[in-house]
Design a protein that fits this description.
Residues 416-452 are annotated as: Disordered. Keywords: Membrane, Transmembrane, Transmembrane helix. With 705 residues, this protein is of the alpha/beta class. The chain folds into five domains: 2-69 and 675-704, no CATH class; 72-184 and 617-670, Rossmann fold (3-Layer(aba) Sandwich); 188-284, Immunoglobulin-like; 288-328 and 338-523, Rossmann fold (3-Layer(aba) Sandwich), CATH 3.40.50.880; 530-604, Immunoglobulins (Immunoglobulin-like, Sandwich), CATH 2.60.40. Helices cover 21% and strands 33% of the residues.
Length: 705
């Protein structure tokens, strides 16, 4: 049981007998001495001296001296590297304050300094959407006992988004000081998305709410906001400042519909990055309306119907010719049909309501008047989608090519029909086209002599392309699938009616479902299947730029950041019609990618990233932390003047003030490790016995007189 005398030295007691035995023995001896004193016996004091000397000897005291090695305290400096630190002179001030602080802390030999930056963490979207100083602080202290912490210094603009709810627990770290990098009395304007849907139905507008705020006070009653949808023509609207404002966004197509918004600058602006915002609405089709026009009955007619009816999102109208005009007999007209087929309604009145029209093995037989076929050709020119699957009739004078539809069909019949087995092959252009690239079972690009892993077809109409792109070829290398754009619409032509062999699994079948799905989506202008396009995908803070082209395109693209800085990205061609580049975003906002012809947008971060919600420098967010830990909040601009610029640093005791005007304190803990112990007995045995015997002899002599 040690008893401290002063730092490093103490007295240790190691009784020779257990305390349960030693205590009663000493008590009895003292009782005898007390009894002698009551009887006024001689030599009581000498007896008492002898008892005390023997008791002290049995307690066995020793002088213990520790050899101590001081342990350095640790101070952590956290540097804010978030995007808002790029505003004005904040980042240079932060680096200057860090340099001054580390230089002054070198004067303390008992202090270890650790510098950690918010950018040293795992990164991701959270790293650019929010400022996490305390995550960085906790990482730096993960291997430290709290008794070694001298405190922490946060170099930041004060906009911190991970302040602990219970700031009282931070007191064990020591004083947490804040050095603010911005200027006092800052002002800014921001544009925020209050409400916006994630999805919308194609052809129907969606409503969104925006808000323009001036901070700290309104600088003007309203502001001009420029709207631009999918990189199109800009439109300007006046929006009241400080109030919600509703807008309508038309959903023009499936996939991403991007609306850019930008508010004009105010008189006071810290950054224009939060003057811009973007809304991404994914367009979905409520119901896809398909008109299937079947001509001659054949084995594949049921395949088209089954494929389209299997999709619950497809409304199918099937117009089929069961009784051609040349089949005349005596059957009364009233017995041929219970309900007259609404030909005029379909092909004239409601034609524009269809998303896709399919002609399957159709030829002129006088059923559809030329006027209706002219309507379909005009429907395509205005933006409609047409798919023609040719049968033998396409090679005859009754071909659809000899009708007004021939103006929009991309392949002219030669009058020949090829009847021989063949494997449909993807052409070189088809390998770069999103409709046919990477079809399951296709042969590898580096093995042109290998046959695809799908079944053969046996019949093909010979055609000569008059436009468009041949993405598949068949017998004798003749065009099999041709894709073309006609004005605002699109046309696909399949020069065979035997795709049904794949659906039946003949010789292993083939990717008919995938091919027709891609074909239908390309015809309906789904952005994901554009063959010549520039797009960008965002995953966290990673931007992947992808350019699709039917011809190799080695050009680099230009990336413009939300702060209007530009950089060049080199694209890597993967031989499948795609060129790809990847870049990590360092700030939330709208990134613009351009190759000189096309422009793509990448929206990084949340709709309203906290990092851009308020970019003014403030100490209010960290004030509870300073109060709970005894730290201070200092403006770097206040300490930049004077003979010795920078904040002063002092080592302080835990029970003293930790901050003051122009200085901050770091706690001195005085921790150490013991490297050795020296144990010296205070009462040698011989000396104790001699003293005890001497005291007893003197007591007896005193009593004998």
């Amino acid at each position: 049981m040690p008893v401290d005398l002063f730092s490093g030295t103490s007295i240790a007691l190691a009784p020779l007998l257990p305390w349960t035995v030693l205590g009663p023995l000493v008590g009895v001896a003292l009782a005898i001495v007390l009894l002698a004193a009551l009887r006024r016996a001689r030599g009581v004091l000498l007896r008492l001296l002898a008892v005390l000397i023997l008791a002290l000897a049995l307690v066995n005291p020793s002088l213990v001296q520790e050899k101590r090695e001081p342990i350095k305290d640790v101070a952590v400096i956290v540097v804010d590297d978030s995007p808002s630190q790029s505003i004005g002179d904040r980042r240079p001030r932060a680096e200057r304050a860090l340099s001054q602080l580390t230089e002054r802390l070198k004067a303390y030999d008992d202090l270890e300094v650790r510098v950690v930056r918010t950018s040293d963490g795992a990164g991701g979207a959270a790293a650019i959407n929010e400022t996490h100083l305390f995550d960085a602080l906790n990482r730096s202290m993960a291997d430290l006992p709290r008794r070694r912490m001298a405190g922490a210094v946060l170099i930041t603009d004060g906009q911190v988004h991970d302040v602990p709810a219970n700031t009282g627990k931070l007191a064990e770290i020591g004083p947490i000081h804040t050095l603010l990098t911005g200027d006092k009395e800052e002002g800014d304007r921001r544009l925020a998305i209050v409400q916006a849907p994630s999805y919308g139905i194609v052809g129907k507008p969606v409503e969104l709410t925006i808000r323009v705020d001036d901070m700290p006070a309104r600088q003007s009653p309203d502001a001009a906001v420029t709207l631009r949808q999918d990189g199109g023509t800009p439109q300007v609207v006046r929006v009241p400042v400080g109030r919600d404002f509703r807008l309508e966004l038309p959903v023009n197509h499936g996939g991403q519909n991007v609306l850019e918004l930008e508010v004009e600058p105010a008189k006071q602006e810290l950054t224009l990055a939060n003057n811009r915002a973007a809304v991404v609405v994914n367009g979905v089709r409520d119901r896809m309306r398909v008109l299937l026009v079947s001509g001659e009955p054949h084995a594949g007619e049921r395949t088209w119907r089954n494929l389209l009816k299997a999709d619950p999102s497809v409304d199918l109208v099937h117009f089929t010719i069961l009784r051609p005009p040349e089949k005349q007999d005596g059957t009364p007209i009233r017995e041929l049909s219970l309900i007259a087929f609404p030909i005029r309604e379909l092909f004239e009145i409601k034609l524009d309501e269809f998303d896709l029209i399919i002609f399957d093995r159709y030829r002129r037989r006088g059923v559809l008047p030329q006027m209706y076929l002219e309507n379909i050709a005009e429907y395509v020119r205005k933006g409609g989608a047409l798919l023609e699957a040719s049968g033998q009739g396409y090679a005859t004078p009754l071909s659809l090519f000899r009708t007004p539809l021939g103006q929009v069909l991309p392949a002219e019949p030669t009058g020949q029909v090829i009847d021989q087995p063949f494997h449909p092959q993807v052409t070189d252009a088809g390998r770069r086209h999103p409709v046919t690239t990477g079809l399951p079972g296709d042969r590898p690009a580096d093995k042109p002599d290998q046959q695809p892993q799908w079944g053969r077809w046996f019949h093909q109409v010979e055609v000569a392309p008059t436009g468009g792109v041949v993405v598949m070829e068949g017998a004798q290398g003749r065009p099999l699938l041709v894709l073309d754009r006609v004005d605002k619409g699109r046309v696909a032509q399949l020069a065979s009616d035997q795709i049904w062999l794949w659906s039946r699994g003949y010789e292993g079948g083939g990717p008919q479902a995938e091919l027709l799905r891609r074909l239908a989506h390309w015809l309906m202008k789904e952005p994901e299947l554009e063959e010549n396009d520039l797009r960008a995908r965002v995953d966290g803070n990673r931007i992947t730029v992808e350019r699709r082209s039917l011809q190799p395109d080695p050009r680099a693209v230009t990336l413009t950041t939300p702060s209007d800085r530009s950089r060049t990205l080199e694209m890597t061609d993967d031989k499948s019609g795609r060129s790809v580049a990847t870049v990590m975003a360092d700030a939330p906002g709208i990134y613009r990618i351009s190759d000189g012809e096309r422009t793509a947008l990448a929206v990084v971060g949340a709709v309203n990233p906290p990092e851009l919600a308020d970019v003014r420098t403030t100490g209010d967010v960290l004030a509870p932390v300073a109060k709970a830990t005894g730290g201070g909040i200092h403006w770097i601009t206040d300490s930049d003047h004077g003979p010795r610029p920078g904040i002063e640093v002092r080592r302080t005791r835990a029970d003293r003030s930790q901050t003051g005007d122009g200085w901050l304190g770091l706690r001195a803990n005085g921790e150490y490790t013991v490297t050795g112990v020296t144990d010296v007995p205070l009462l040698p045995v011989g000396a104790v016995l001699a003293l005890s015997l001497g005291a007893l002899l003197l007591a007896w002599r005193r009593e004998g007189r």
